[in-house]
Amino acid sequence: MKRSYSLRLRLTLIILLPLLLVAGLAGVWQLNNARSTASDVFDRSLQSAALAVTNDVALSGGDALVANTRKILSDTSGGRVYYHVYAPDGVIVAGYATPPVGIPTSADGGLSPVYFNGEYLGREVRGYRMRTRMQVDGFSGVFTTTVWQDVSIRAAFVQDLTLRSLSVISSIILSLALIVWFGIRIGLWPLSDLQQAIDLRSGEDLKPIRRPVPVEVQGIVQTLNRLLGQVTEVMATQNEFISNAAHQLRNPIAGVLALAEAVRSAKSEDAMRERAEDLVNAVKDTSLLAQKLLTYERAKAIDQTSLKEAFSVNKLLDPLVSEYRNRFPPDVEIIWTPAPEDVRITGDRTMIREAVSNLIDNAFRHGGPELDTITVGFERLGPDLSITIADNGVGLTPDQIRTARMRFGQVSENSGGSGLGLPIVERVAERHGGRLELKDQNPGLVVRMIISVGTCAAASQPADFTPTQLSAAHPE
C-alpha cells in the first residue's frame, strides 16, 4: 500500500525545499563574495601599509616609523604585516632582512606596483611590491618597498564572514520553517471545520454542507454535496419503491392467499377448478404488478452508460408490432409502416421498447368496445424524434389524462392494470431528455413519446416525412 503523508507535511516540504535550495545557492554565492571581498580588502590594506612605510622611510631616512604606521603593520585586517625597503643599489634600508620567496622582478625596471603570492618562513603569504623614485640620506633613485602577510589570516577572515552569513541565513530559514509549519496548521483549520461538518452527517441527515470554506476546497465541497444529493435521491427512491411495493402488493397478495385457501377448502372438484382459475388469474395480475414496479424503478435508474446504445427505430418497432398483432384479437388492427429511410438513435433500447410496449398495451386495454385500430409511427420534429401511438377508442378527458399520468392512477374502477404504464413511459422519456404528450382526438387518444436531440443520431428522412406516411398501409 502506498504510504500517505499529511497535507501539512507536504505543504511544508513544498515550501521549504525550494527555500533550502535558494539558501544553498545564496551560501555558495556568499562564500565566493566573501573571498572576493576579503581579497580586495586585504590587498588594499597591503597597499596602504606599503604607502605608509615608503612615506616614513622618505621622511626619516629609514630610522624610524611613526606610531600610525606601526599600528597598521601590527594589525592590518586582523594580522601582522611584514615589510622591507631596498635602496637602488640593493642595500636594505628598513624592515625585515629575510624577504619572502616568490617576489616578482621587473625586467624593464618599471614602476608599476604588483601583487604576488609567495612563501615566507614556510608559510604562504600574499604580498605587494611598489617602486618609488625618491631621495633618502643623499641617495636618489628608485626605492623598492615590499609588504606581505600570511594567507591564513585571509582564510580565517573569509571563514568568519561566511559563518556569519550562513548563521543569518540558517536563522531565517529556521524561523521561516516554524512560521510555515504553524502557519499551515492555522491555515488548515477550515479543513478541520469541514471534517466536523462531514462528521455530523449520517444516514438520517444527508443535507448539503453550507459552511464557508476556502476557494481551494470549494470544488471538493460541491462534489461532496452533489454526492450527498445523489445518495439522498437514491435512498428516497428506494424508500419510495419499498413503500409503493408494500402498498400495491399487499391487497393482491392477500387476495392470492384467500383464493389459495378457497381452493384448499373447496367442497367439490368443480368448485376447486373454478377457484383455481381465479387463483391463476390473481397470480398473473400480481406478477404483472411486480414486473411493472420493477420496470418503473428500472426507468428511474437509467444512467449515462445505458444511454449509449445505438439502434435502428425500424428494427426496434417491427418485431414489437408483430408480437402485438399475434396477441390481439383479429378485430383490432395495428397499422405500422416502416420508414423507407431508417433512423438510428442512441439511448437505452430495452427501456424505449418497454415504453412503446406500455403505450400499445394501454391503447388496447383502455380503448373501449369501439376500438378497432391502433396506429404506430414515428417522425422527426426538428432535432427531436417522436414515437406516436394513436387509437380510435373512447379517448380520455383532460381530468382523466391527469389521473392517468399519476403513479398508480386509475381512470376508472374497472380499468384494470397497475397504474404504472404511463409513469414508466414518462420517466423513460425524461431520462432521454424528452417528454410525454397526450392529446384526445375524439375519437381516441394520441400519445407521443418525444426523445431529445441529445439522444438522436444522424437521420436520413426526407424533408416531407410525416406520420401519415408511416401509417398509410398495412404491411403484408
From TrEMBL:
Its main location: membrane. Its EC number is 2.7.13.3. It is found in: Membrane. It is an enzyme of class 2 (transferase). It holds the Pfam family HATPase_c. Gene3D superfamilies: 1.10.287.130, Histidine kinase-like ATPase, C-terminal domain. Keywords: Kinase, Membrane, Phosphoprotein, Transferase, Transmembrane, Transmembrane helix. One of its GO terms (molecular function) is phosphorelay sensor kinase activity. GO terms for cellular component: plasma membrane. SMART domains: HATPase_c, HisKA. It catalyses: ATP + protein L-histidine = ADP + protein N-phospho-L-histidine. Residues 244-455 form the Histidine kinase domain. It comes from the Bacteria. This is histidine kinase.
